Amino acid sequence: MKAVNLYGPGDVRVDDIETPAPGAADVVIRIAACGICGTDLTMVRDGSRRDGATPLGHEAAGVVVEAGPAAKGVRAGQRVAINPMGEITNVIGNGGTEGAFADYLLVRDAELGRNLIELPGNLPMSIAAAAEPLGVGLHAVNRSGAKPGEKVVVFGVGPIGLGAVLWLKDKGVDDIVAVDLSPERLALAERYGAKTLVRADKDDLAETLYAVHGREYVLGALCAGTDAYIDAAGAASIVSTVIGLSKLHARLVVPAVYREPVPIHFGQMLSKELSITTSIGYPDEFGWVVARLGQDPDHFADYITHRFPFNRFHEAFTQAGQREAGKVMVEFDA
Ligand SMILES: [Zn+2]
């Protein structure tokens, strides 16, 4: 079978390797779709994390083709989404021993409802595969505590930030401002519920927020009426921007991956009692997301901006690295 491996910085190869066989508690899945993640791009830029080949791919869905006798609740023929963080013994992608950019994937200690989620009805495989990045966006929204009637800013509307916009809207939060450099990404954020779009390189964020979220004052200092900020961009200036703009008891959630330390001016933050926290993965959200996608697959179809067959993997990977790209999906022998 074919499988994608990383060997060093920029050195990604589609290898011919042996098809895996399941142990007693394992299953083998024929992959139908696997999304390209920002993590994959970072891993390729930095080089291999394991000795030798590092398998890539962790946003996947497929069909179980073989199940060991001790696999829990899983049988051949089931259509499943793979939770690569489901407390499993093999980390999938992300530097683990298996990767889902492969014709077949071994999932060790398989358990339905934990590391494998059965797909509802006719949920298309590519949309099911998007449950992983959408779960990351939903967890960031949950961590923000945003409620209907509140006003929220999302910095960076690539796949994670776009997911945050989409779930905010889904939860009844209507007053969403999306900030990005890319007009293509902003247009998609509008499609999924952002009411106001801010071009980070052109528009004045502060003036925009005063206009659409209102002016408030903390100890006489002007600030924006925004309740919560989600930083899915990871630009170094964002934290200080939010500290400057935030009103009393505003919240900032950071799902973005920062590679360098960022200074925080606690003196400027003092009067605002701003809460800052991070968010990672989808500790409770994965199954919920798959169920929600199954209720209305068409609504989520535009979340995927590009689709490539597996035999054009390198093109797909190049596309995912473009600034305007949303979620790039690799599809297997459709
Ligand atoms: Zn991912």
Mean pLDDT: 95
Radius of gyration: 21 Å
CATH class of the largest domain: Alpha Beta
Described by strand count, sense and barrel closure, the largest sheet is: 7 strands, mixed
Portion in strands: 25-35%
Q: How many structural domains are formed by the residues?
A: 2
Q: Please give the share of residues in helix.
A: 25-40%
Describe, in short, the structure shown.
The chain is α/β, with parallel strands linked by helices.
Could you explain the architecture of this structure?
The chain has 334 residues and is of the alpha/beta class. The chain has 2 domains: 2-133 and 282-331, Alpha-Beta Complex (Quinone Oxidoreductase, Chain A, domain 1); 135-278, Rossmann fold (3-Layer(aba) Sandwich). The protein contains 11 helices and 18 strands. Helix 3 packs across helix 4 and helix 3 (131-144) packs across helix 9 (286-295). The protein binds zinc ion (ZN).
Considering the chains and any ligands shown, give keywords for the structure:
Quinone Oxidoreductase, Chain A, domain 1, Rossmann fold, 2 domains, 7-stranded mixed β-sheet, 6-stranded parallel β-sheet, 11 helices, 28% helix, binds zinc ion
